[in-house]
TrEMBL record:
Family matches, as InterPro entries: CIDE-N_dom (IPR003508), DFF40 (IPR039729), DFF40_C (IPR015311), His-Me_finger_sf (IPR044925)
SUPFAM superfamilies tied to this protein: CAD & PB1 domains, His-Me finger endonucleases
Function (record text): Nuclease that induces DNA fragmentation and chromatin condensation during apoptosis. Degrades naked DNA and induces apoptotic morphology.
This protein's name: DNA fragmentation factor subunit beta
Binding partners and assembly: Heterodimer of DFFA and DFFB. Interacts with H1-1.
A single GO cellular-component term on record: nucleoplasm
Predominant location category: cytoplasm
Length: 338
């Protein structure tokens, strides 16, 4: 709980009115909001007006003062003006000049704050150059990046490759922990993983909107959706982002995690090390561990708010740690003809 109350601007989903509310915790703001709008507290929740991020007690301290919040009751949903409008406009291949001009004129004449905000969001999103791909087509998107990056897909592919390479470096630091006898086998497994990663270009296609459908995590327009948290069927706040739209979205996307459902450091690598130590003539199924460490079989894209820092409490499948041993068929003795 905060020592000093945090002030926010609160509105209900279907109410044009907005009130200032202060509280030291998310629950206190929720309680005051329900009282103000005469809504039931049970089943109600708070989310950010901008993008629909649902507030929790842990997230509440990071919300800026005077942030705009929406109060939702049971069964209601809010994804934010920016998200909804952006999804709609991403279907267009070119900015709609007539739409921009009309929105600009309306914004000049509009007096209601809520509709002013909606029109401003509309202009912000329609002006984004989502369809542009090259540096020449959208120079602002590439600000701060090295000159070698000439396409958006190329940079985002590199970004994904870098994350996968970092996981490989972690695994590569473990041979010294397995003892002299098992080091050779560990290095053999590691070599097989490296070879496979090189053959698929370190799965950089996950972030490349130009890749085939089964190889990417986004839509053909470049929209990514949160795939967490792992203890629920879907992300309750339904976060979405398009890092191809503008520089700010590209930078924000870098805070999203490629998270392991079965944890890498606490579970996968220790299980692999133990399997190599205790193989006793059995062959470690390195492809199973490869899938857990480096592929979407076990990697999920998660918004930073939904990232769970607690233990996931999931383990490797004991039946898949070693390859099945083939049984040699016994040869029947040849019968002598009488």
């Amino acid at each position: 709980m905060l020592q000093k109350p945090k002030s926010v601007k609160l509105r209900a989903l279907r109410s044009p009115r907005k009130f200032g509310v202060a509280g030291r915790s998310c629950q206190e703001v929720l309680r005051k909001g329900c009282l103000r709008f005469q809504l039931p507290e049970r089943g109600s929740r708070l989310c950010l007006y901008e993008d629909g991020t649902e507030l929790t007690e842990d997230y509440f301290p990071s919300v800026p003062d005077n942030a705009e919040l929406v109060l939702l009751t049971s069964g209601q949903a809010w994804q934010g003006y920016v998200s909804d409008i952006g999804r709609f406009l991403s279907a267009f291949h070119e900015p709609q000049v007539g739409l921009i001009q009309a929105a600009q004129q309306l914004l000049c004449d509009e007096q209601a704050p809520q509709r002013q905000r909606l029109l401003a969001d509309l202009l912000h999103n329609v002006s984004q150059n989502i369809a542009a791909e090259t540096r020449a087509e959208d120079p602002p998107w590439f600000e701060g990046l090295e000159s070698r990056f000439q396409s958006k897909s190329g940079y985002l592919r590199y970004s994904c490759e870098s994350r996968i390479r970092s996981y490989l470096r972690e695994v590569s630091s473990y041979p010294s922990t397995v003892g002299a006898e098992a080091q050779e086998e560990f290095l053999r497994v590691l070599g097989s993983m490296c070879q496979k990663l090189r053959s698929v270009q370190y799965n950089g296609s996950y972030f490349d909107r130009g890749a085939k459908g089964g190889s990417r995590l986004c839509t053909p327009e470049g929209w990514f959706s949160c795939q967490g948290p792992f203890d629920m069927d879907s992300c309750l706040s339904r976060h979405s982002i398009n890092p191809y739209s503008n520089r700010e979205s590209r930078i924000l996307f870098s805070t999203w995690n490629l998270d392991h459902i079965i944890e890498k450091k606490r579970t996968i690598i220790p299980t692999l090390v133990e399997a190599i130590k205790e193989q006793d003539g059995r062959e470690v199924d390195w492809e199973y561990f490869y899938g857990l460490l480096f592929t979407s079989e076990n990697l999920k894209l998660v918004h930073i708010v939904c990232h769970k820092k607690t233990t996931h409490k999931l383990n490797c499948d004991p039946s898949r740690i070693y390859k099945p041993q083939t049984r040699l068929k016994r040869k029947r003795p040849v019968r002598k003809r009488q």
